Amino acid sequence: MLELAWLILVFPALGALVNLFVGDRLGERGIHVVASGMVVLSFVVSLGLFFGLAGLDEHHRTATVHLWDWITVGSFHAPAALLIDPLSVTMALVVTGVGALIHIYAGGYMHGEQNFQRFFVYLNFFILAMLVLILSNNFVGMFVGWEGVGLASYLLIGFYFDRHDESYGHYADAGKKAFLVNRIGDFGMLLAVFLIWTSVGSVVFEEVHHGAGALTAGAATAICLLLLLAATGKSAQLPLFVWLPDAMAGPTPVSALIHAATMVTAGIYMVARTHFLWELAPVAGGLAAWVGGLTALMAATIALTQVDLKKILAYSTISQLGYMMLGVGVGAYAFAIFHLVTHAFFKALLFLAAGNVMHGLPGGELDIRKMGNLRAKMPTTFWLFLIGASALAGLPIFSGFFSKDGILLHVANFNIPLYLIGLFTALLTAIYSFRAVFMAFLGEARDQHVHDHAHESPAVMTRPLWVLAFLAVVGGALNLPVLLTMEHYLEAAVGAPAFHPNVTMEFVLLAVSAVVAVAGVGLAYGRYVKGPSTGVGRISGGVARLVSPLELVARNKWYVDEFYAAWIVGPLLGLSVWFNQVVDQGVVDRAVNLVGQVSLSLGGNLRKMHNGLVPTYALSLFCGVVALLLWFVIGG
Amino acid sequence: MDTALLFDNAVVLLPELVLAVGVMVLMMVDIGRRGQNGSQLLAGLSVAILLLGIGASVMIWGRAPVEYLDGAISDGFALSVRLVILIAGVLGVLLSRNWFPAIERQGGAFYSLHLLAVIGMMLMGTATNLIVLFIALEIFSLALYILSGFYRENARSIEAAMKYFLLGAFASTFFVYGCALLYGAGGSSKFTQIHETLATGGGNPSLVLPGIALLLVGFGFKVSLVPFHMWTPDVYQGAPTPVTAFMSVGTKAAAFAGFFRLMMTALPSFHDQWAMPLAILAVLTMTVGNLTALRQSSVKRMLAYSGIAHAGNILIALVAGTAAASSAAAFYLFAYAFMNIGAFTVTIALERQYGNENDVEQSRLAGAAERFPVLAAAMAIFMLSLSGIPPLAGFFGKFLVFKAAVEAGWAWLVVIGVLNSAVSAYYYLRIVVAMYFQQPEQAGDEKEQPFVPASRSSVFVVVVSVLAVVVIGLQPGLWADLLRGLGQ
Fold first, then answer.
1. Helices (H), B33-154
2. pLDDT tens, residue by residue, A469-526
3. CA A91 to CA A265: how far, in whole Å?
4. The complex's ipTM?
5. Half-sphere exposure of A267 (CA within 13 A, CB side)
6. Taking CB atoms and an 8 Å cut-off, how many pairs form between chains A and B?
7. What residues contact A136, with CB distance under 8 A and at least 6 apart?
8. Where are the domains of chain A?
9. Among A235, B110, B154, B259, which residue is least crowded by beta carbons within 10 Å?
10. What is the pTM of this model?
11. Residues B473, B466: Cα–Cα separation, whole Å
12. What residue segments make up the domains of chain B, in order of their start?
């Protein structure tokens, strides 16, 4: 079974090619069936890989499927080979499983769009690139996938490249921003790969793992810091998170698939994949933990102030990715991946439910201040969104509760201030997720026009969501405390954590988390359902005392974009202008023009010699003869 | 002479013999149908004969090289050059079909001369003897003088033929004088014999260098090296464009082939003496050719100066004087055949569009891409290939020549060659820019002219040339293995 792993790549590639070349003849339905069908087939292959792997001895659950020798230059060797182990199979199941559901949903969501075909070609291409990223057995292959998903993300964020509105500006610019910010991270990735190659002498994960012992602490730290830079770009962490909120300009299925469930988790996956390097670099790990913790906190405060449903979810994604980064930073790789999986379920669910809201409201309205009492108009979507929000808030029983708690448990052992930050963020998470639920679905309709025209979405857009909702509820069962299943399963790939909490501590912390989550929901209820109806959307009461000094800052997204504009983009632009006007136009262009003018005037003079008269031509020939004879007879 | 000797190894000249018999058949057929107009049959027959010639070349491909009567040889280099010339011949015949009224009336004469020119050119590549070399040179030169003036209704064509003939005769006298001096120096007209005599200290070495100087004039005239190039633009512009297309490639291939063989088999021991003056000629040729091309307004004249510049590039290979360099030159000529004939074919098609009979002004090309998208795209490919932009055929021609020269220690010459390529990009790309990015001046008038479809045979030539330029560029290794240099 494992030898057939290459099939998992073939299906989405085939889907993209078929839709690219004959999609216009298939019609919408045909395109949708091909694109979704191929991802479903990939999912089936992933399941096959999972069971194939389960059949192996649990300490040797890893296999390499060699496809061909890709690059061999001197001693540098990068094979095209797939690494099948618990980590990559888990990722593949998420990518193809959630991916298939979102493909099915997108058929309804994109119905009637002008570029239906282009959309599904990109989407299949994304699945292919993402699978290359997670299945490659070496850094170079992973980098190919890394860049491939970046390209797909760029193309899909700018999918409505001709649109323009107040909240995103030119949609095409959002794509550009994502691409450019990610260049910085990719630069770190590339340097890290170079450094690994020069210091270990291989780019294959397994060989690097075995050769990592020879690394000095300094080299390992340098590599991990560069990898951290790469991860902050792809996974939208401080300081490179600014692209993700703008990425919501893409169609909602894209936000769900790429900018919530899969691509943005590539940074987390990459750190887990290179855990053997991070174990050698505790300083880099600590930094990653702090980056994750602070990102989680900051993004949560911003999410609390946003009024655009998709932007709330975008900041929430940044915040949850912060938790995962915190998890891998403290060495809880298995829990980080566990949270990655559950987050994929409930965040895809939330985004798609938000897509239903957008789809069902006039003008694609997303401002929660104009909603209210949507429960009456779209009950199914309400329940779906509620389930997603409960999982996100970390209410007990729901999947997010278990996975987030697993991370916090390890953080508590690592550093108490970081734990408190994580816990406080959990409180904010509960508040902002239920703020969205209450303001959108409960209370009174605040905009009668919007409310009157609201309608529920078709079945193709709700059925896949029930699957996600089911997973969002029971996903926690993948790794129940004490029973320890998924964590144990992943250990074969990411190693066992050094720290084993005792059961008492585990239950105490679980109880604390549960109380915090419920308290957050209660606060939100008090404010947004029971509270005064004036100043809707503002924070007040008990919460205000906690965050009011920060509200203005948070509402303005901590001025990070403004900081970049003033301190990085501005000076760089100034420098570019100087180079353009002084160096390029003044020196380079003038030199080039001078050469051109001299050539042209020389050419003009030479042309005059060709006057069409035979005697002139014969004279020229004769002069040539004389010159040659002189050279050979006298000079020679 | 023993008659058995006459037939021994005659297979060396099989392609030439096939063509010679073919010419006679062609003339007989022409006599048989005297008085009838139209020359489709003759054109078809000529193509068939040339294809037979290619078949004959392929038949003797890969055999151990043998010499025929101390005068001709069938080594890999000779076969490679033959292939280039035969391809140019086929494409040239296809272009001439239907091109101008004189062909309709005197098709027999036109196609016979065309085939005779091909025979002469092929002999240049196989000649191992000064006498054969000179006769071959005169066979194709005389044929080309007449072909240049075949468009008798056009004064420029007649003027071109006259100029070409007068100056050609002038250059031939120097050439034959050079042959005589070389014969005096080596005591033989056979290349290898001259080399042996001089290398072993015999003969009269003082005559060698003046001999080389005078031979250079003859070759320099044929391949248009500066300062023996003056005739080129006038003749290229005046001659019927199909003839220009054929001779621009065929003459260059033939004369360079003879030039390479003479210098590398008869006079290798004097390489130190002749390399430097040739290098200077190469620099002059490239620079003057490119700079003058910058200021041309006619497409045909621009291509003429571009041809001069390309001769300079190929001369770099001769300066290097190694086996690798000669095979690089063969590759260069092979690639040049397709891109240059292709460019002239598009010019022919555009001539028909613009109603002007024998030339196109560059200013007329403005906005051509909109009116003739296919022709413009093909022209763009040929221009990019001529300027040496990868991955097209022209790039690898230049690359191989420059590589061989650097390996032989002529790096400074290559630097000048590369700089010249940069200059040349200007006038090649100007055509592309005009076609794609400029608006026609009198848009109204241009649109009213009806579209004149290109003849089927010229469409065929364009398609073959585009394919060749792209395929050679994408798979250069294949062709580089096929085309052999001297001593390979």
1. 40-59, 76-96, 101-126, 130-148
2. 998 888 877 776 555 567 777 877 777 776 777 778 888 888 888 898 888 888 888 8
3. 10
4. 0.85
5. 40
6. 81
7. A81, A82, A83, A142, A144, A145
8. 341-555, 559-635
9. B154
10. 0.64
11. 11
12. 7-482
